[in-house]
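FAQ: What does a multi-protein file look like?

Like this. Sequence, then tokens, then the next protein.
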Amino acid sequence: MRPGPLSLPPGVERYRVAGGGAVVVAIEAGDQITLRDMEGRQPCEVMVAGPDGGNGAAGFDAGADADPVGLKTILAGSGEGARRLRAAMDRRGIDLSKARSRRFFGGESPPGETAAFTAEGDGVLIVGAPGGPMAVDAHDTATPIEVMVTRVKVRAPEDTLLPEPLADPLQDLRVRRRTAIAYEVKAGEFIQVIDVAGRQCSDFQCFSARALERGQVQQIDATTTRTLVGQSYPMPGLFAKGFDRDMQPLMEIVQDTCGRHDAFALACTAKYYDDMGYPGHVNCSENFNGALAPYGVAPRKGWMAFNYFYNTAIDDHNALYLDEPWSRPGDYVLMRALTDLVCVSSACPDDIDAANGWNPTDIHVRTYAGKEPFSRAVAYRMTPDEEPQMTRETAFHPRLSEMTRTYAEYRGYWLATCFAKAGPIEEYWACRQRAIVTDLSPLRKFEVTGPDAEALMQWTLTRNVRKLAVGQVVYSAMCYEHGGMVDDGTLFRLGADNFRWIGGDDYGGVWLREQAETLGLKAWVRSSTDQLHNIAVQGPKSREILSRVIWTPPAQPALAELGWFRFTVGRIGDFEGPPVVVSRTGYSGELGYEVWCHPKDATAVFDAVWAAGQDHGIAPLGLEALDMLRIEAGLIFAGTEFSDQTDPFEAGIGFAVALKTKEDDFIGRDALIRRKANPQKQLVGLEIDSNEAVGHGDCVHVGRAQIGEVTSAVRSPVLKKNIALARLDVTHAALDTAVEVGKLDGHQKRLPARVVRFPHYDPDKTRVRG
């Protein structure tokens, strides 16, 4: 019923406690609880409350002798996680002031260490992963704890425990499988549609309640919505609303933990099942008719709807196809009513194909008051089998959000794409001519420490880490055994056995921990992304601006002394200011720096840099302008220039592979030696002899034969022409080779191009080294 390697065995539930956070889980007598310190050295605080909210469940109090200081600190926080934890405890009448807890892990606990116990009574389990602010030049970060609960009673899918409410619900409604229900919601209230057991679809439709009172039917129109939002279906963010035929918004999507839905097909109909050989099969459209009859809505043979959790798409042959849903138990869509609504939700009865994983189950609906402070978010999974995390705002968001509302989700955070007063072109020129500040906090940071830390990094990176001095940074690739890339990033050396790896993907940390475990190395790899946010200050004036605000102690290099790919530890203003790490690194092709700080100091850091840059015309810069800069500078991006099928030579960063100067073995070395000796593809620069845009994935031809594809492209403001990065067969990768970029089907329209020196802008790196 649930194929695939990601599914947990029946009766097993997994919860992820974020570093600095906590979770609340209902337990029953006989349930087995296993705690795992995922990354090592992370303290874990556990308490169990009885069914009435009192401290302790039978069998747990014997070892619970500590004041839950960590949980109290977490509850005192101001974030959404702390708010939800307080609400969950308040609903159960749990009072921490009289509670006792047990502590696990911390100190020298290795990655993966576990602790287990059995619940001897019914109650509520509260697990925290406490931690304080990490100093920018230290490694005491707070990391996740995994909680596995093996239930003594294996529940049927429809009895799967629901996730904790997002707030106190106004309505708690169960939509039994193969049925539909209608319900009313006031303007401003929130609607949460929950997939209870996973892989279950739910059609949703809503009507203006005031229009129904007048005898008019104004409902969500999927075609109008697709046209206005420019997407297959609305998603959290700017393009989140569902519109009726008169282009009036009825609702908007606020949160989505699944990310795959449908708005093309109708809710399933009697005709569909008749045509498939199942006459009389229950269907969502007729269920809608029955649920909506009390509201005077005339029945229809087929209802247009937002089909939540449906995994459908249109393939290259123009066929609409479906497969099992992506949704997992507890996944949900959260909406906000923009007017008084009558809503209808179904639990789809389709059991003749994969639409519901061949096994229809229940849907649950909750509604919440409009006063609840739900933030816009989508779910991000660090790895495919991780629990979802909701999109967050970086610590610099309070300042940057005053300048723009145009944001995009990137790696679990909202980042500005452009700014209202300027726009991408003006932001681009500000970087080339003056200075900019941009938020790059979603970069993944990992603290690598321990006596074997150097050995671990020497084994996993393509650079010679043994040559890296304290205070130095090196850019490197990280490869699999076959030579394909795991990630690229920068490695900071903070001490003899202290490193900080900064990359783009969470899996980089998982990979490092796996290698340390395989080799039996005494090294810890602990994520610090939430403890270290960063802005990049780039452009010809960046040194002058930062020299005004960065104070460094005598033992550290002054900012003006900082060489390329070096870093210093200092403070903002003077020796009492917020601590920062400043590295001479960047992603723009210009002289530039990155400033790293704890999130609690982010606004102070931003304000100081912004004020110091006013005389130099400093400007904010979003993702659109950043992409223009990095393409001109030939800087690669994951998913475009490289993947696990691309080696560093094919990605254009062969300089980062130390085959000649690194005598030690490293992962992928033998494969990279073979691939370098027998190259197949090469990353090159293209100049396009046309003003028509080209884009990622466009085919590149010589005659009829396709010899490569475009990886990234932009209309270069400084070069005044369209340029591209492309991966071509080495046969046609020589300078001045004439090629054609295919548009439409690749043959009906071609744009002439030629291979040019790579990178396009400042190929000798004179500006960035200046």
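And here is the next protein:
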Amino acid sequence: MIKRELPLLPLRGILVFPYMVIHLDIGRERSIAAIEQAMLGDRKMLLSAQKDTEVQSPYPEDIYEIGTIAEVKQLLKLPGGTMRVLVEGIVRGRILTYVTKEPYFKVLVEECPSEKKGLRAEHETLIRGVTHQFQEYAKMGKKVPTETVGTVLAVDDPGQLADLMVSHLNLNVIDKQAMLEKLDIGERLELLTEYIMREIEILELERRIGLRVRKQMEKAQKEYYLREQIKAIQKELGEKDERQAEAEEYREKIAKAKMPKKAEEKALKEVDRLEKMPPASAEGTVVRTYLDWLLVLPWSKASRDKHDLKRAEECLNEDHYGLEKVKERILEHLAVRKLTKNKMKSPILCFIGPPGVGKTSLGQSIARSLDRKFVRMSLGGVRDEAEIRGHRRTYVGALPGRIIQGLRTAGTRNSVFLLDEIDKMASDFRGDPASALLEVLDPEQNHDFTDHYLEVPFDLTQTMFILTANTWQTIPRPLLDRMEVIHISGYTEDEKMNIAREYLLPKQIKAHGLQDDTFILPNELIVKIIQGYTRESGVRGLERELANLCRKIAVRYVNQGWQPRVLRGADLEELLGSPRYFYQMAEEEPQIGAATGLAYTEVGGDVLTIEVTPLPGKGQLILTGKLGDVMKESAQAGWTYVRAHAKELGIAEDFYDKIDLHIHIPEGAIPKDGPSAGITMATAMASALSRQAVRDDVAMTGEITLRGNVLPIGGLKEKVLAAHRAGIKEIIIPQKNKKDLEDIPDKVREQLEFHLVSKIDEVLKIALLPLIQPEEEPDRLPFLLGNEEVKSQSDPWLGYPI
């Protein structure tokens, strides 16, 4: 085997075989240096292909081991520092080692001549087969000139014949490299046969496909020619083709629809497609449906807003009692639109409040006050993104999303669009509808809202979106951030009474066919229905009870057993039965170890009594009443505060070594949670341990910290209304909740005294009565006093009467 050191030229996307003459364009610095070095010597060099053509500066591991030793025949330098060389392959060569890598690759190469391991007869058979196949390939592909075919077939050497044939095949570098690495002539001819057969199959497939396409094109051209002849004949006869007439009708409608430019271009493009389709085509039905949707949408149609603020205020007051913040916000919007001449973008309002307070009906009133169309879409249980954005037209039965459908129903682009129950959306594998709503509810983005079905943008900036929810916790934060949230709290008893008197009762009397004088329901009986037969923040249950009352009276009226009269308490119980609900009232006298707290529930506020009893034990805190984790932590914080300040409260500093505390909140079947009972539990514990009674006319709410700070809480309005209903006279609230007192009705606020506190010490001073003297209290717990003589008694437990 001949070995020599030669410059190496890495090739990208090309491979050179022995006996092959080819031009190469050289541009890389290392390759140019290798060419120049070869020109200084005997013009011999090794040409080897790169494994990855994307590599700009290859390393030895990026280059195939076997290449072709070639001779540079010509060299031509081109502008830009590149050169073009003409090379001729001589023999295969194997890289043994890399001698140098800079400024060019210099390698030690071993020549690899062709080997003849098989029988001569086998070679002759393979040569005949491959010759015939190469001729067939050249005939079918028409890429190899006839002269070249003759030159190749005139070669007698089998190895040279195989190399020349493979160099004219349309193979990738990997296949050619596999051919180059075959040193045995028999193996090389077998692999060449496989490659040529594969190429022939590909050419045959291309021929069949080309023939089929050509036939289809000829058929389409023939149909087009005949169709044009028919059009010319119809034009001469004054007749119109049905499809052409349909297309012209669509074009006229598109011109009148006043669509945006993009939508109009899309519609006209679809009309052109429809015109070329056969009449019975299934795709034609899809296109017609799509065009009908584009034409029916209110691209430029809008109702005219009425900017009469007095009339709008009257409309809102006619339909809803109270809700001053919402009404004020709508009037502000009207005023601004009047000043900006309708150029202001519509707001995105979100009404959050308990069920039955009129959130949904408020949307209808807003539409009536603005003199706009009203559309309602319920989002409860929606879990498919396509409900918002629609389905793509590739699906069978595809339709636009509910937003576009709602605008079609309204017929105007500036309607009031109510998205109801947004907090009850879900998501699954079909997508997240809340994320799809981000574009709809963002005034900076919804001017180009694109429905998957329409595929053209629709401007939603003039649409006034109103959303409703019962709670904000389940609304995604990015979605909540795009909305102007208006909290609607529950109605007070006075508000419910007025709503029943002015709205609900007349509505039910009319609905049940009764006369206004059939019965008279005094205000005190309405309040009794509210307190004894309903427990809710809204008025749905109240309306049902009034409807029930009207039905009972209707039956008696039809049976001629009813005389028009003013109803009394006895009549109410006879018609509706005994009261079903009872509100907890304030304690009748001061209690030791019992403090009155305030709670916020889904149906409004409530009063709850926290009871604390000390027991013999080892300082454990027992909590009962189905309390949540946050409430348990608040009790722990209060317990820690009392232990840390035992001396100041007149309690033995080591009391926790002898007793346990049991904290119970009544109505144990009802789950309770939240930090707002912190100061109430701390007060009850201090009362039980210090034997100072808690005032019965005081209720309190606030979160406590380990340092005795009182932190703000939520739901103050509902809690204060519950305290007022229970007969409480004074309420202790955190100092930072002072701003929330503005939300409490003046009538209620005037009848209560509020204590704003920031420390638990202030709470205890207000809530706890002075200590009862020992001589007046024979059953006092002696082990709770800081008296050494008493503490040394063997049996400290003497009982604990409450």
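Q: Is there any per-entry metadata?
A: Some entries carry free-text notes. For the entry above: Confidence is low (pLDDT under 50) at residues 774-802.
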